[in-house]
Amino acid sequence: MSTRSMRAERRGKTAVQSALLVAILVAGCQGSSVSEQYSRMAAVEQYLMTDSAAEIAMARSAAPQAVAQDANILILGRAGYKTAVDGKNGFTCLVERSWMSPFDRPEFWNPKIRGPICYNPAAVKTVLPYTLNRTKLILAGLSKAQVHKIIETSVAKKELLAPEAGATSYMLSKMGYLGDSAGHWCPHLMFLVPRTGEASWGANRVGSPGLFNDENRDVPEPETIFMVPVAYWSDGSAAPHMAVH
Fold it and tell me: Global pTM?
């Protein structure tokens, strides 16, 4: 490859990384109009999916078929998540709702958000409980402040543990909707680790594939999430961000 071609390739990669970082952070920079629009929880019905088969399909779409076909599948009910399909490979797939965002994200209550995610066995053991716990508290009718305080207390009592070594999740679904600005965003892997700074992973640095949401940081659970975009959706089609030049 010529020097000119190598420079062009590096510029292309940097443009991709910059575009992706802007997309994931823009939801936290939308201003007062978004904050006012989603200032409170909507009616529970708006967060539910009436078609359980559609929710199961969306949950499965989070991971490659080889993983998802044997995974445990959860769907959301009025009191929390319940098992819709018993799996056999130790993975669990579900569709998370807006309240799994950082507490300071303006779209925390956006009822349109659907986040298909599939946790590996290590994450099922130590990170999935975060989702189940938050969801149960939210659907019990507690306020955002009350939920935050209860989570802090649970962490202090070690009722919610830090992610186990190797905890990861797939978010490869083109069926998801991660926010009014992010939309489907892009397929990515999430690495779930005990609380740490982004510098420890070199995240958000030029040339680094690792991303970290440094706009919305209010996550009371004892974890840090690093994201690495990948080239393909779970159905095998190429992701749009690969075309950025």
Answer: 0.84
